[in-house]
């Protein structure tokens, strides 16, 4: 039982770690796209 819980926790933390890296790397692009999206629909 302990081994399964340890594996689950390890994979959960690995997933959160790599997802955080992806979010930080793509954050400037996300802000740029959001700015274009926001101004496009504000003008119309």
Q: Cα distance, first to last residue?
A: 58 Å
Helix percentage range = over 70%
- How would you sum up the global shape? rod-shaped
* DSSP summary: helix tally: 1
Radius of gyration: 18 Å
The major sheet is characterized as: none
Give the DSSP E fraction (strand runs of 2 or more residues): under 5%
Order of helices and strands: H
Low-confidence stretches: none
The count of strands amounts to 0
Q: Give the overall pLDDT as a whole number.
A: 87
Secondary-structure-derived class: mainly alpha
Textual characterization of the structure:
The chain is an all-alpha fold and 44 residues long. Helix content is 95%, strand content 0%. It contains one helix and no strands. It has one helix at residues 2-43. The mean pLDDT is 87.
Key attributes of the depicted protein:
44 residues, mainly alpha
Provide a concise account of the structure shown:
This protein has 44 residues and is mainly alpha-helical. The chain has one helix spanning 2-43.
Secondary structure layout:
Layout: H1 2-43
């Amino acid at each position: 039982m302990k081994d399964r819980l340890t594996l689950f926790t390890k994979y959960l933390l690995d997933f959160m770690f790599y997802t955080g890296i992806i979010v930080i790397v793509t954050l400037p692009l996300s802000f740029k796209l959001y700015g274009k999206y926001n101004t496009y629909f504000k003008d119309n």
